[in-house]
Design goal:
- This protein has ten helices and no strands.
- The protein has 259 residues and is mostly helical.
- It folds into two domains: 153 residues, Lysozyme, CATH 1.10.530; 51 residues, no CATH class.
């Protein structure tokens, strides 16, 4: 590959990206067709001045598209106005875009409508260059070179960072501090014993006869009465005691008589 071709491949992706940004209707094939024509006209965007002008006495073509006659003079005036070097890339691309936005804006739709890269190359040449000698085979070669450079630039994957190994969870070592499990809730205390309504407390052994007699005379819950006598119940206790004594006396008298 020649030095001019290396230079062309290096510049092609950026120029094509700019063309597609300026003209959203275009894709990479349209932009490659444009740049293939410019590459042929200027020997890979290197030879700006036409070597052997076909028109005698003229300055010949100049720049990427080889602007000739009135178009060259308009380009040079535009460069002076914008204070740009006519040999620079900024000036060449800038004026080329200005023409496609202006007087030559019909080129955009014509190139887009053509099917296939070679058809697009021809459509651009006819609508924008109007060359006396076509050399479509050479224009197509530069277009394919531009497209290849653009595809390589946009499909090359940068070296990525090695993927970090996933961290695996493991149980802490014996010396590690781990979060303690929550302490179990204390067992609920048994509910306090409550007296069952209507159920009298059981009298203590040995006191059954006395409490039974009191209950017989209407002193239910006698244990409570004797342990916690109320003032209004004291008389009832005395009367009950006398009655019990009388009954007990009759009981023992009956036993002695029956013997």
């Amino acid at each position: 590959m020649t030095k001019a071709q290396d230079n062309f491949r290096a510049k092609a992706p950026g120029i094509m990206d700019r063309l597609m940004a300026e003209f959203p209707l275009w894709d990479e094939f349209d932009a490659a067709a444009d740049l293939g024509n410019l590459g042929h006209e200027s020997g890979g965007l290197v030879t700006l001045q036409e070597k052997n002008p076909t028109a005698k006495g003229s300055k010949g073509g100049y720049g990427w598209p080889q602007w000739t006659g009135p178009r060259r003079r308009a380009y040079e005036a535009w460069c002076r106005k914008n204070k740009l070097d006519p040999a620079g890339d900024d000036a060449n691309l800038g004026y080329h875009l200005a023409e496609l936005h202006g007087e030559y804006n019909g080129v955009i739709k014509k190139v887009h409508a053509a099917k296939g890269l070679e058809a697009k190359v021809k459509a651009f040449e006819l609508a924008y260059e109007g060359a006396g000698i076509k050399h479509y085979d050479l224009r197509n070669q530069w277009a394919r070179l531009a497209l290849d450079a653009w595809l390589n630039a946009h499909t090359a994957k940068p070296a990525g960072k090695p993927a970090s190994a996933p961290s695996s969870a493991k149980a802490p070592d014996d010396g590690q501090t781990s979060q303690a499990a929550p302490a179990p809730s204390p067992a609920p205390l048994p509910p306090p014993s409550l007296p069952i309504p209507g159920k009298a407390e059981e009298p203590a052994p040995g006191r059954g006869l006395f409490y039974g007699l009191l209950a017989l005379f209407g002193f239910g819950g006698a244990g409570g009465i004797l342990s916690r006598p109320e003032p209004d119940q004291l008389g009832r206790v005395i009367v009950g005691g006398v009655a019990i004594a009388a009954i007990a006396g009759l009981y023992f008298w009956y036993r002695r008589r029956s013997k």
